[in-house]
Structures are given as C-alpha cells and as structure tokens.
Amino acid sequence: LLEARRAWDERQLGSVEELLGRAAAIAPDIPMLLALQQELTTLRETVLELITDGNAAVAQSPDDLEQAGAAVDLFNEALELDPANQAAADGLSRLSALFLDKANAAIVRNEFAVAEEALNFAVEQLPEQEEITALLAEVPALKTAFEADLRQQVESLARVSSLLQQANEGLPNTKGDSQQTAAVAAIFDEVL
After folding, report:
1. What is the distance between the alpha carbons of residues 162 and 182, in angstroms, rounded to a whole number?
2. Which of 29, 104, 129, 145 is the most exposed place for a label (fewest CB within 10 A)?
3. What is the reported pTM?
C-alpha cells in the first residue's frame, strides 16, 4: 500500500490500480486500501467528466475559438490528474487538427489575418504543437506571395485594358489602311 501511495503521489495511476488490485487480493478490508480505491474511483470519474465536457465544448461549436480554448483547459486539467490518459491526449490532438484545418481553410480563401488569429490562439493554447508553430511561421511568406501574384495580375489586366483601348481607337482607321489593320491585329495578338 505504501508503494501504491507513492505511485498515487506521482500520478502513475496504472501502477496504483495494479498495486491496489494485488493488495485487495491479500487483504480487501484494510481501511487505507479502501480509502485509496475510493480516491482512485473519484479521480477516474473526475477525469472522465473533464474529458466529456471537453468533447462537448468542441462539438457544440467547433469554429468558436473560445470554446476550443475551454476544451483545451479541460483536457489539460484531465492530463494533470492523469498524465497517461489517452482520451485527454487525443482531445488535444483533435483540437490541434481543428486549429490547423481552420487556418488552412482561411489561407486557401486568402484570409491571412483569420489564419494568423487562429494560429496565434492555437500557439497560446497548445504551445507544444510544432505543426501549428510551423504553419504560423509560413503565413507571412504566403501572404507576400499572394500579394505579389495579385499585383502581377492587376498589372496584366491594366496592360490588356490599355491594349484593348488602343485597338478600339485604331479600328475606325483601318478601312483601306493595311498598316493600321496590321497594327490593330498585332495589338489583338498581344492581348490574346
């Protein structure tokens, strides 16, 4: 039972359960054993409730960053009580994926401020998630590339507009003038 108490203090709940099981097989009515079993049951119930609440917070509104932050807090609290709890760790992984999905969707829509907001919030909530930090570092370069591409498209459209205007101005003068007709044709060729 002393080993079980040490394991309890170190939050090694798997070891606690095993040691309590062995002690119960020898002497099931010892008050310290019963007390530890009750504490373990209560702790497991608390952890399960935290995980259930975390999952509910995400399910209620997956796009709400505040709800996601509340879920992170619940999963982290569950992990503080039971560091080896896989359901709580999985909850944090799902939230990480949710933040990444939200940011990637915003990037696809060229909404870089939205992506940065989601990723900054995610880094604050889940600082150990390297994928989030890496994507956040890429956003400024993606934004710069998008803006450069947009400027190039605007310049191309302005050039096409200017050429079309030149062609339009030259059309009335092409009747019987092969040089003017050739010049207008060259403008259309450049536009196309």
Report:
1. 18
2. 29
3. 0.68
